[in-house]
């Protein structure tokens, strides 16, 4: 009962926060001057006439009401004017979304197991040369931005050695080896930071658990070090680590904004940056709403997951 009340409360706060953010973005966007499309073959008089029909010259509250009404009634988020003139922004978004999701999913599949394994190994080898090497590598990787890795990988693996292609193979299926190989370069760029973050966090949590009093008690009861580690230490250390993995997925999605542009992946990240450069306000509002919703939803999932991972935790209970 406590969990249900907590979930409903958090969903309500999420919707409220999402609404406030989108209202602020909508008002600020409408205060900006409308760009003049530069595409050839467009009649400017027809464009301005269509803008007037859509209510661009009406008060902001009226425009906001018509915008929200069109979304809920017709799933209409507007039409692109400068980036992809005449195209429905929702249709373009749905077309671009799979490429972004497949890159991020492959990055999580690669980075999460490696990050956990390196962190566990470093904790078990604490203060030994293996731990020092892993910790030093983690600090170096965390300090370098993902776009620097993109340049290095493109130069070494794509250009010099020719092991990986420069661009995504759009003709291959999403679950094929050809597709995985074609996006391995951007996946590596996105994975390095996540692997380093999970390694550092896992090492810190597991090291703290291994030095706890209940671990000493488990050893005195006759359990071997391996048994005590697998039965007690790892289970307790995973309570704060597993929710962190959800947060890392959001971090990867945010980082893919730049990586998608560098590797010319036809995804949502590149579309977002292009919409800002092209001053395409309808694309900007839709994609801002998407990234805001994903970020807010991830925070709820992280908090709720604590209660499912460890039954002793009851979110919302006094």
Layout of strands and helices, then pairs:
Elements: H1 2-31, H2 44-53, H3 60-74, H4 89-124, H5 129-143, H6 146-160, H7 177-182, H8 184-210, H9 213-220, H10 225-262, H11 268-277, H12 281-309
Helix pairs in contact: 1-12, 4-5, 4-8, 4-10, 5-8, 6-8, 8-10, 10-11, 10-12, 11-12
Structure commentary:
- This protein is mainly α.
- The chain has a domain at 97-279: MetI-like (MetI-like fold), CATH 1.10.3720.
- Helices cover 75% and strands 0% of the residues.
- It is built from twelve helices and no strands.
- Helix 4 packs antiparallel against helix 5, helix 5 packs across helix 8 (184-210) and helix 10 packs across helix 11.
Characteristic key phrases:
318 residues, mainly alpha, MetI-like fold, 12 helices
